[in-house]
Design a protein that fits this description.
The protein is mainly beta and 727 residues long. The strands form 15 sheets. An eleven-stranded mixed sheet has the order 13-12-21-22-28-35-38-41-45-51-59. The chain has an eleven-stranded mixed sheet with strand order 25-26-27-34-37-40-43-47-58-61-60. A hairpin with a 4-residue loop joins strand 9 and strand 10. The radius of gyration is 28 Å and the shape is globular. The protein starts with a helix and ends with a helix.
Amino acid sequence: MNKKLLSVILLLPVLLLGLLFTANYIAIGNLIDDPSRISFANPVEFVQIGHTSTIPCFTTPSEDKWQEDIVYEVDDPELVEIEGHALAGIKEGATILTASYKNGTLIDKIPVYVVDEDSSGLYALDLGSSLSGISDDCLYGRYDLSEGLELVDAKIEISVFDFSSAIYEGESLIPSKQAQEAKVTGGLASIAYNPVTSRYEVTAQGNEDIVLTFLNSLGEETELTIPLIEEGINVRSYRDLAYLTNHYEKDNPLCLQTSLESYDQCFDSEGNPLRNLKPLALTEGEKNQLQAFGDDAFYLARSFDGVPYYYEYTKTQSTYDTRFLEKLGQSADLIEGLKIHQDIYGNGHSLNFHDLTFPSGEKTNVNGQEIVALSEKDVYRGPLSFCGVSLTGDSPQVTVNGEDNIVMGIHSDGLTIDNLTVFGANNRPYVTDYEYGGTLLSIKGVNGFTIRNSLLQNARNGIRCFSSQDVVVDNCLLRNCRDYLLRLGSDVYKEQNHQATPSENYPEGERIDTNITVSDTYFANSGFFSIGVEAHFDGRFLYPTTIAGFETEQLFMGTLPLGGTSKGVNLAIEGDTRFYDWKLISAVSSSAFLQINDDLSGFEDLLEMMEHFDLIPIIVRELSKEGNAPFLIEEKERVDGQIDPDSTFVNTGIAYYGGGLVNSRADFAPEDLGLSPLTVGLDASLTTDMLLEGCIGPSPFRFYLYKNDSSIQPGDNPSLKILSERA
């Protein structure tokens, strides 16, 4: 065997180091939600008893069939009946109208009032609230941010509908938008009526909750309470958000009062602005205003309708192993959209970072799938390199991915994010569309962080939590991510100074570096696993050694040792946590997680041979055993005792990495979650497995999966309704 062929054979298992750090499913055919976005046209609907009213909606550009895919519900069907795309009033009162896709995904919610000719009383509505999150809470900050970026008393607009003085216009009963009397009866505030907007304007003057009392023409009173967050600041634009996170040094809580969307999602199919949406984009004037507050602010310019808009990002240092980057003279900087150092109350609103993270290059068609390429100006370009291998000794033919860019990074201890929806990008048909989208929420070196009642979706990774203590994910939905929905690990590891797999470990009280609790949370549609718990690999090839006359130090370009034992993760899972993550085994591919250089002249067999040194065939081999058949849902019978990956589904719930010594703990009872354990080890009698063990180490991998009799089956989707009920 010549040295070149031997080097290729040695290279292939080494590549597994990267495959197992960041392995993933291509998930072709794994469709996510309808890409269109729909919202109600009005902030409130009125329906008369005995009359029918069409439900007005806006939709972003999509096919006309969108109305057929909508399911409507009301909280109290005794008050109003759903008749197709209309409401029929039955009994006087107030309820909530919810629109969802047929798969249960929430679209929008609004209040509905059923009234009649003799209806009286006042119905107050806060137009700044959003009912489309997991929680219906609407909280306000004590302050607004002025045009000059100064804190000023918060102004809160209230619409009040008075049916004691309503009039008819044709078949419609039109209430008055002005009460006979309005006053502040609790807290510190003032109130005044604005005849131009037909709204009341309430100005906060203290941190206490504001209580308002309205009097109608019949002398009847209606009371409304506006909850205030002490020293909180209302966020009403992307300029506010970018300034208060990336530039502002104080820790005032933030209260989101509008949804900040990608530019094209802010308008319906006819170009009309959608209700309560603003673009997550800066005008040139806003960019120049923020730019004066720090030299670490950078901007990516795009143009819509010929007008330039800008998106801010900052830079942060990777906490991953960066020796390879230093060897190549490359930067260890990561792109970060927002640096979070204060509590955020989302009020059900959304942040969509599509125009910052999604590629802006040309669209191409690959095997029937539309792929959008990177352009030169795009800044979110995928993970940094962790290590590389070279067959020539100078430049790497292949590099392995490490830590990824960040959409939102947590930078202070003890923070809370509540009732917030974050999109890394617009809804797309496949999770592979989020190749370059980065990590939605990065938690590194933090003590105490809680995210609750929130939805995170559409990125490469959902949450990445490393070397952090007392982290809580409560009553959330994480879905549609290229890699993991929740990725856990430690930045701390010990290198060994010998070639064999080490037996040295950390003392008992020092083994855990990340402590996280997941409670009442749903996971859906990952590219690989819903939850991945990483451990550092420690095979003998990751140390300077000689194998069949070939130096591993040369192969890794002088960056060895790469092996070691990392500290562990204590993952606790509680309550009603579910994994909607069934997928075809045949969708597995690792091609997206290695950077292959263009110059592979003389190594034509490399890509073909790589396919034989992947962990996935080993998992398939384990699943093919008759005793493991309950983990599979098979559409076709086995041939020669082997499963058919093209028609076999497996639920990828939780993966604990093996390889080197593992310090992580599974602090949950799998049976309480409907999960069953599956251990996958390497077979020392097989040459392929022996080579893999030389890269990763001998410890087996542990998986926690649903079996085929689970109540959750392929095609099932999570609904926000249950999450909303317990928020």
